[in-house]
Design brief:
eight-stranded antiparallel barrel, single chain, 6 helices, alpha+beta, 10 strands, mRNA Triphosphatase Cet1, Chain A, 233 residues
Length: 233
């Protein structure tokens, strides 16, 4: 189990600004080990309670809130993780448990029994949360990510584009049929992730003072689209 605690901030930018910012960043930070020239696909199935507790906690902008997701990378499907991400004020804590393909399929069918006897205490905690609060899969989200990383303060800068979602298809390992675009074509979500503080050279290269911080994440936006029947990003 991995346990990460850091600051995170999101910004919604257009495609041209993405190209300009990435070009300025090249002097100060390198792509991570997985990005390559095209980035990589990220696909997650998010879980929520029968009363959509996690969705409404974001709608109400509660200081302490979280979400649970099952994540894989379609171009590297051997890597699957169960993640519990919690926001407490300005910091975010993410706990990550590696699971097998078979275990992932069980989770997608709301079969959480194997977690009850898990060797990791976090696995047993997830069993209690998922069962006691009646969590079930609610939406699948996919996007392409370009990521940069620097060792100082564990800095990561990510650019997520081509965001798509679906509530009727929870096949995490399939071809992603039936997914709809989330937001207008060309919209990109940039995220800054770091411990302690964000380096000033990177802040200057990005020009964060010119950007508008994004309040709602991909999960929130995707659920809002399906609930309202329209694209609102």
């Amino acid at each position: 189990m991995r346990d990460i605690e850091r600051f995170e901030s999101k910004y919604r930018i257009n495609y041209m600004d993405t190209l300009l910012i990435r070009k300025r960043l090249e002097k100060y930070i390198q792509p991570d080990d997985y990005s390559g020239s095209r980035g990589y696909l990220v696909r997650s199935v998010y879980f929520d309670t029968i009363f959509n507790k996690d969705f409404y906690s974001r709608e109400q902008s509660l200081t302490y809130r979280g979400h649970i997701r099952l994540r894989t990378y379609p171009e590297n499907p051997g890597a699957v993780s169960l993640e519990y991400k919690q926001k407490n004020g300005v910091t975010v804590r993410k706990r990550i448990l590696s699971v097998s393909r078979e275990e992932a399929d069980r989770l997608l069918n709301a079969d959480y029994a194997f977690l009850a006897q898990h060797k990791e205490a976090f696995g047993r905690l997830m069993y209690r949360i998922l069962t006691m609060e009646a969590y079930r899969p609610v939406v699948m989200i996919e996007y392409r990510r370009q990521a940069y990383a620097r060792k100082e303060n564990n800095i990561r800068i990510t650019f997520d584009s081509s965001i798509r979602a679906c509530e009727s298809n929870m096949d995490l390992f399939g071809i992603g049929t039936g997914m709809a675009s989330v937001g207008p074509q060309g919209q990109v979500i940039m995220e800054l992730k770091y411990t302690d503080f964000f380096m000033s050279d990177l802040k200057s290269a990005i020009g964060t003072h010119l950007l508008r911080q994004e309040a709602a994440g991909k999960y929130q936006r995707s659920r809002m689209i399906f609930m309202s029947g329209r694209n609102i990003l």
